[in-house]
Amino acid sequence: MLQTDIAIVGAGPGGAGAALKLHSLGIPCVLIDQAVFPRDKICGDAISGKAATLLNRLDPEFMDRFRESTDRQTGVWGIQFSAPNGTMVDIPFKFPYDKEQEPAPGFVSRRMDFDHLLIEKVLRSDSISFQQGIRIDRYERIPEGWLISDETGNFQVRARLLLVADGANSQFSRKHAGLEKDLRHHAGAVRAYFKNVHPPHPEQFIELHFIKEVNPGYFWIFPLPNGYANVGLGLRSDYIKKRKVNLREAFLQIVKEHPILAQRFAGATMESRLEGYGLPLGSRLRPISGDGYMLLGDAGHLIDPLTGEGIGNAMYSGFIAAEQAQKCLEKGDFSAGFLKDYDKRVARVLGSEMKLSYQLQRMLRYPWLTNLLARWITRHRWLIELISRMYTDMELRKQLVNPMFWVKLVIKLLR
């Protein structure tokens, strides 16, 4: 039996990020994952500036090596939105930007590659005991904390504090933390890898195509190295159920029959299976800690409701959980009451953003509004600059749900 102060279940970006942050704080931990790395993970593969910023704080040399690994990642400089009527809008993450002089704000990297880079760093960290190929099936609350084990009971860990980062289908989240699936705050998605989607975006922007038949979801094309792309389709689960949408059929129909997109896939080849997955969205405030545990990333339903981003949010929650764990050890307090500070800090850092994303998602369910916004943006360059600034200015972004913002905007557009 292993004895530790902190056990982390799940070694994706949230769990590995927490372990690496604990290592930087001088705190040992046990990190456990059911897979043996490198392993694949069904995902959109988009890595936002959040993750890059956190990793740069932790280890600038690591981020330099990641940026230089052009066979493992593609730098991303902005987003191209396609309205239901076909209007294309390019919004850079920074305005103006210089690809020759500045590092890319975001990336697209296969999870097999990105997660393995994190694990390589974990393996070089002597305070992290990494246990691969072990599925934790049993969780028992004991006076000293938690006793966790595999199905056979041959592998056991006794820990004072548990960090749960085992993904969207977390058994612990459902059975012990009580986070039930809510279709209004959940999405379904399918994705596949393609090669030679033509033409690629000339500026390496990720693409989000809002298509009337799957509104308020979207079809995405995210560029990868060597002519590959992560291509997928996502839609909120309550709409999937209400409309009886088969995402796989809808995806293939778009690729083969969409009046614009089908032309780009005519010479492309699908290089993987079309696989589905669920996304527990952070559009509803939920308790993400309890007596002796904290929930990280997808296990804590922390996926952005509009963009579907999970990696950056998972890493943020992992870093915050590690810092909270340090406080728990200093105080000798692992109670639910003391751990509420974790919930509060996650809500402060991520909650407002996810609430705003949910409100924007609801606005974009109206195709006529999406079409109108796209038409305005293409006609007014200052609007592109304004929206670009919203990526890094949260206070400015909040104006999007203020009615007076739209009144002033319409008045300015009509002058």
Summarize the structure.
The protein is of the alpha+beta class and about 425 residues long. The chain is about 40% helix and about 25% strand.
Overall geometry comes to globular
CATH fold group of one domain: FAD/NAD(P)-binding domain
Q: What is the second-level CATH architecture of one domain?
A: 3-Layer(bba) Sandwich
- In terms of per-residue confidence, which ranges show pLDDT below 50 for 5 or more consecutive residues? none
The Cα radius of gyration reads: 22 Å
CATH class assignment of one domain: Alpha Beta
Largest sheet: 8 strands, mixed
Mean pLDDT: 91
Instruction: Please report the distance between the alpha carbons of the first and last residues.
Output: 73 Å
Percent range of helical residues: 25-40%
Strand content: 15-25%
List the helices and strands and how they pair.
Blueprint: E1 2-9, H1 13-24, E2 29-32, E3 46-47, H2 49-58, H3 60-68, E4 74-76, E5 78-82, E6 88-92, E7 106-108, H4 111-123, E8 128-131, E9 138-142, E10 145-149, E11 156-164, H5 171-175, E12 186-195, E13 206-209, E14 218-223, E15 228-236, H6 237-243, H7 247-257, H8 261-265, E16 269-270, E17 275-280, E18 289-290, E19 293-295, H9 311-331, H10 336-363, H11 367-379, H12 381-390, H13 394-397, H14 403-414
Parallel strand pairs: 1-2, 1-11, 2-8, 5-13, 11-19
Antiparallel strand pairs: 3-7, 4-7, 5-6, 9-10, 10-11, 12-15, 12-16, 12-17, 13-14, 14-15, 18-19
Helix pairs in contact: 1-4, 1-9, 2-3, 2-9, 9-10, 11-12
